[in-house]
């Protein structure tokens, strides 16, 4: 996974764009073979894998454990089978607060038509920034979570007929302003208070609707503490599975927050601690990329992560999915993938791939014959350009074939890899159900082990016992 080869001819990034419709084998022919290549000692690699339906971790988990990986899991389908994730644990500066708020706004919806208007979104952004900034800088560690944020929103109130009314949250910020007038949270909250009482009421309604998923107790419990240790994924071999529903996008904003924070954390850690490059390459295998929500500024991030030893494999059913989420930035994202793997597709997919493959030169011979008083023959020769593969040929391509295009070389028309030939295939649950990775048992064992570890902050009472005393000696016996 060396991102800096000596030969410029092979100096490509590791980003891959994978396109394949349902049933084309995106998991079997791309994800699993890449996870089985996990034992390199010269170039150790961590993985961040989105796992639609949650079946992949059970199939490959034992292989990763056997190969010396830490396995982490965030499950938005079954919260009881998930490690905890608390975004507040990764806030280190005011800019981190702004990034978290931006991700939250981009991947959740407010209430009613006004929630989509620019003014209302900006007002909500100020409100969230003020509250999260207050929690980050003023709350005790055990209260730094979304539960506290929700309680503060519920305690907020604005009255149109009483401009002098102060809610408990208003009073909190007033006391904070008396102590520190230049506080980051105070400055944001004062801007929020510039709106009239009626306007503020509408903003609070939209904010409450946006935070509705956190009214679910399991979601609050999931995000009260943190076990993912996102900032250490580039330090040692780790496999982080992000399990999401392939039919319901309600909680996908959590995954967007994880990935947004993860990329920014790893880039900062590479720059601040490791001189610009992580010791362990981090490869993000993003299956069903269109369903994980929007990662803010992803078009800029994917262009800069290469130098930090981070790469992304973006897996889509159609390129139009990317355009639907990232609009004009979709082309920038795809252009920053030096490899494109096409597994199957029709319609626009086939046309786009046909255009990308370009044309080949063919020799054309036209023979003519004119019959009249005299018969004449003619032979016309010319060179013509023909599509390397037509849209129809791509749409009817054999299901066992694929097209790989690598920047700087001609495209490959190849067989899909037969994973049963891989030497580590025998460690997957595909071959033996005994290899199935039980997430429940793994998490239970991990938490029991953690409970047995004494933290540095834990205190004990020290007793000095004189065993020479006969009564004490008798008790010991």
Describe what this molecule looks like in 3D.
The chain is α/β, with parallel strands linked by helices. The chain has two domains: about 15-85 and about 225-345 and about 395-435, Rossmann fold; about 90-220. About 40% of the residues lie in helices and about 15% in strands. The chain has helices at about 25-35, 55-65, 95-105, 120-140, 145-155, 170-180, 185-190, 195-210, 215-220, 250-275, 300-305, 320-325, 330-335, 350-355, 390-395, 440-450, 470-475, and strands at about 15-20, 45-50, 70-75, 240-245, 280-285, 310-315, 340, 360-370, 375-385, 400-405, 410-415. The chain has a nine-stranded mixed β-sheet, sandwiched between helices. A two-stranded antiparallel ribbon has the order 8-9. A hairpin with a 5-residue loop joins β8 (about 360-370) and β9. The longest helix has 22 residues, at about 250-275.
């Amino acid at each position: 996974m060396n991102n800096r080869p000596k030969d410029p001819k092979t100096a490509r990034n590791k980003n891959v764009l994978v396109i394949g419709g349902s049933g084309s084998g995106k998991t079997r022919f791309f994800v699993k073979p890449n996870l089985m290549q996990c034992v390199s000692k010269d170039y150790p690699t961590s993985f961040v894998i989105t796992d639609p339906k949650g079946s992949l971790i059970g199939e490959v988990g034992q292989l990763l454990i056997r190969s010396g990986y830490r396995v982490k899991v965030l499950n938005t389908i079954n919260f009881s089978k998930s490690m905890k994730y608390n975004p507040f644990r990764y806030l280190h500066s005011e800019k981190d607060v702004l990034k978290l708020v931006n991700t939250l706004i981009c991947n959740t919806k407010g209430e009613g038509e006004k929630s989509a208007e620019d003014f209302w979104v900006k007002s909500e952004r100020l409100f969230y920034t003020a509250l999260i900034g207050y929690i980050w800088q003023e709350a005790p560690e055990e209260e730094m979570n979304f539960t506290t944020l929700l309680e503060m929103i519920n305690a907020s109130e604005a009255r149109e007929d009483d401009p002098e009314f102060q809610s408990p949250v208003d009073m909190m910020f007033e006391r904070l302003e008396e102590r520190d007038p230049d506080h980051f949270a105070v400055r944001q909250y004062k801007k929020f208070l510039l709106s009239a009482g009626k306007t503020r009421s509408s903003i609070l309604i939209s904010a409450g609707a946006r935070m509705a998923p956190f009214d679910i107790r399991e979601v609050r419990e999931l995000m009260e503490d943190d076990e993912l240790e996102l900032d250490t994924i580039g330090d040692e071999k780790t496999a982080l599975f992000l399990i999401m529903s392939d039919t319901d996008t309600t909680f996908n904003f959590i995954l967007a927050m994880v990935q947004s924070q993860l990329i920014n954390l790893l880039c900062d850690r590479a720059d601040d601690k490791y001189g610009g490059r992580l010791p362990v390459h981090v490869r993000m295998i993003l299956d069903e990329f269109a369903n994980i929500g929007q990662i803010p500024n992803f078009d800029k991030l994917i262009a800069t992560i290469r130098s930090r030893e981070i790469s992304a494999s973006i897996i889509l059913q159609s390129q139009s999915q990317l355009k639907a989420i990232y609009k004009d930035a979709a082309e920038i994202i795809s252009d920053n993938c030096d490899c494109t793997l096409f597994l199957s597709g029709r319609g626009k997919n086939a046309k786009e791939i046909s255009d990308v493959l370009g044309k080949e030169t063919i020799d054309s011979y036209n023979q003519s014959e004119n019959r009249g008083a005299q018969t004449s023959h003619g032979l016309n020769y010319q060179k013509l350009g023909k599509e390397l593969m037509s849209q129809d040929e791509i749409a009817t391509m054999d299901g066992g074939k694929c097209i790989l295009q690598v920047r700087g070389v001609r495209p490959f028309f190849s067989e899909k890899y037969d994973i049963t030939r891989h030497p580590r295939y025998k460690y997957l649950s595909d071959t033996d159900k005994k290899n199935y990775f039980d997430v429940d048992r793994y998490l239970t064992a991990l938490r029991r082990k953690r409970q047995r570890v004494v933290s540095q902050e834990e205190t004990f009472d020290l007793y000095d016992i004189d065993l020479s005393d006969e009564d004490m000696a008798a008790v010991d016996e």
